[in-house]
Amino acid sequence: MVRIDGKVRRRPEGTLNPDLPTGEVEVYIDEIEVLGPAAELPMPVFGDQEYPEEIRLKYRFLDLRREKLHANIMLRGRVIDSIRARMKASGFFEFQTPILTASSPEGARDFLVPSRIHPGKFYALPQAPQQFKQLLMVAGFDRYFQIAPCFRDEDARADRSPGEFYQLDLEMSFVTQADVFDAVEPVIRGVFEEFADGKAVTPKFPLIPYAEAMAKYGSDKPDLRNPVIMQDVSEAFRGSGFKIFARILETAGNAVWAIPAKSGGNRAFCDRMNSWAQGEGQPGLGYIFWREGEEGGAGPLAKNIGPERTKMIADQLGLGVGDAVFFVAGKPKDFVKFAGLARTKVGEELGLIAKDRFEFCWIVDFPMFEWNEEEKKIDFSHNPFSMPNLSVEEFLALDANDHDKLLAIKAIQYDIVCNGVELSSGAIRNHRPEVMKKAFAIAGYPEETLEEKFGGMLHALSLGAPPHGGIAPGIDRIVMLLAGEENLREVVLFPMNQRAEDLLMGAPSEVTAKQLRELHIRLDLPKK
RNA sequence: GGGGGCGUAGCUCAGUUGGUUAGAGCGCUGCCCUGUCACGGCAGAGGCCGCGGGUUCGAGUCCCGUCGCUCCCGCCA
Hints:
Elements: E1 2-10, E2 25-34, H1 53-58, H2 60-63, H3 67-89, E3 93-94, E4 112-114, E5 122-124, H4 130-138, E6 143-152, E7 163-173, H5 177-195, E8 200-201, E9 207-209, H6 210-217, E10 231-232, H7 234-237, H8 243-248, E11 255-261, H9 267-279, E12 286-291, E13 294-298, H10 300-317, E14 324-330, H11 332-349, E15 357-358, E16 360-364, E17 366-367, E18 369-372, E19 377-380, H12 392-396, H13 403-407, E20 410-411, E21 413-418, E22 421-428, H14 433-442, H15 447-461, E23 468-471, H16 475-483, H17 513-518
Parallel strand pairs: 3-6, 8-15, 9-16
Antiparallel strand pairs: 1-2, 4-5, 6-7, 7-23, 10-11, 11-14, 12-13, 12-14, 16-21, 17-20, 18-19, 21-22, 22-23
The protein binds one RNA strand through residues 11-12, 14-15, 17, 19-20, 22-23, 26, 40-44, 46-47, 49-55, 107-109, 127-128, 130, 150, 152-155, 157-158, 160, 167, 279, 382-383, 415, 422, 424-427, 472, 474, 497-499.
């Protein structure tokens, strides 16, 4: 680190360098001083050379000197500024909620903080300010937001930081789902338009019911940049010469879905997809493709089902010479995830994905309950505090044994999805204690359990709660998309590694015996 | 907790069918050059081939185990 005093001058003719931002000037040095000597760096700080995460994280302060990461972090700051300004301009007010709070029994694993004053008792770091923001609504603050830190002791993913992350947490009183959308969508769209760097942003986020998303895209977080849309083609295979599928279709509820692959009409591609599927643990991936001179369709399936049925499939999917189609068969619930992967794979392999876009949608109408096959009972399928999409009277009148009817109930719950990334989820909250009691009863929890675990919340709701709802877009994921990064660590200042270790600060770390004594804690470590 | 990939110089990587002394580029050190700007030239240092065990006359290479990093599943609003 040096200090240089001197005069900035124009470079002499012939030494100008238009490739450099400073290529027209130079400094004539009068004096130079070393302010902080530097040893050899463990990693160079220029260029886009890739380095192992371990070194990058251990020397994060060097990594942050690099242009890309520096720009990402600066972008993050500007995005947060923009979000905050947009929220305030929409009449939201920013609040701070506690970091040391109580452990909550549902959801993710808590980070616990032992209490010195109360031996044997623990605080927990909030998984989200969920209960506080609902209490704010009860308290009469009708438009809350916060750039809120959230703490969850769960395993990491590339798009999920271990330990902690940030949400744009917001909540509103006296609102419907549509009111929340009208408040949030302009903020998210505005921020993306502001920082999209020329990429197109969905002008009006379409609403896609959960069931439709699963049927068309095989995912509740579809990447709409991928034009591939799946269809049910069971009728083309029912009773056909392709016995494997014909037999599967004899079981009620089973189906055959088609994944169309425009421009994939060659054997090399179809074989590659088939081996990919086998690598994914599937028996294989049936296909038909069409090429010049074989308009009746090529591949083993086409031969088995004959030209008429093959044409039926081509017509239904709008496919022709040069195209291919893949099939998955069985119980949709079991194969839908793989079908979604195959759809993504087709899009990627054939270069069908429009990379220069931010494609948004709302996923709505999530099922309220789901069937737990192992325990043979009804479970909450997502958040137990969402309002069911029924009138209070209808919901209270439900028969807890009418499984078909219960499983068809939707919750007023919604996600924002962008380019296949789940950006946020929210809900209209269940603000009626009697509805909550009924919902928990359906899921098999006695009233005492509800009372014991959520008594405070329940009590608050019983003292005059407005209908309210909100959402919580993930800040890190927003910045990740805007920065064009695949990994959250590229948009976080001091991230932990996948094992939730901070290699720079050395966290987590052992503490002294004295500290433990003060906290009345004795360690009982696993034997190794 | 489970599965996949990776692990060779400070960094990025190569390393044949198992064969003698493990290489390259960048970086680093010294010297030379001095209108260069990813300068150039000469010379040089730097290796527990992640670790442990096994097979073999011989292992960076094959096998088993283990550790680390990473991606995914489980988990997670």
